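User: Study the chain.
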Amino acid sequence: MRKHVLNIIILCGVLLNIGCNKPEPELEQEYLLILVNGNKWTYACRTYNEYGYKNDCTLIQSVCGDTIINGTSYKIVKNTIEDLDIPNVLDVMGLPEKEYYREDNGKLYLYDKLPNGLAGDVLMFDLDLDEGQGVSHCHAVSSEIDSAKVLDVFYAKTTDNKYRKGLVIGQSDDSKNEYYYNDMWVEGIGSRCSGIRENTTHTYGFRAMLNDFSTQGKVVFEGNPKWE
């Protein structure tokens, strides 16, 4: 499997100074967790009603503590909506005030309703996958692209000088270098398109795209949200 290092300068979602076909770096650091207290994802959101009227707003998700559910430890992720002054805005958008996530061996789980109607762990991301493996079992992938797979594996040095494993997610091997047509899952961050949420960029009614990710109060990754 081909792996390479990307020395990335991230500016408004554009990848610059890309060095390909370099050996995998000797990673001295431990796996970078996504769920660290204080980590924050900011999303550009748009809602539509049945008449096509739209509202633009900002969704902020932040890791803010710990809890235990049925004997299992979870991180608390708080949802906040800005720039949209309507009553019960989270209810209107179908978002709870708090959600509960956990990580295990490169996998991110959301405690949510299962297909059988009971509550349990829903797999959102799996960063332990290799090139060529399918990702339809991960809930972060839109149901419209259930044939998606890992097109490439890379290592990126982000603006906080940390190497992060990344997966290029898409449908066609021919598009693996097409930045705007694929998603990227990045260690310690989540999805380039949707953070730690399900990819809703093709969902009618509510859409959320990652604007930036910050850790320890510093933005280290910027997306490039664009509406069609």
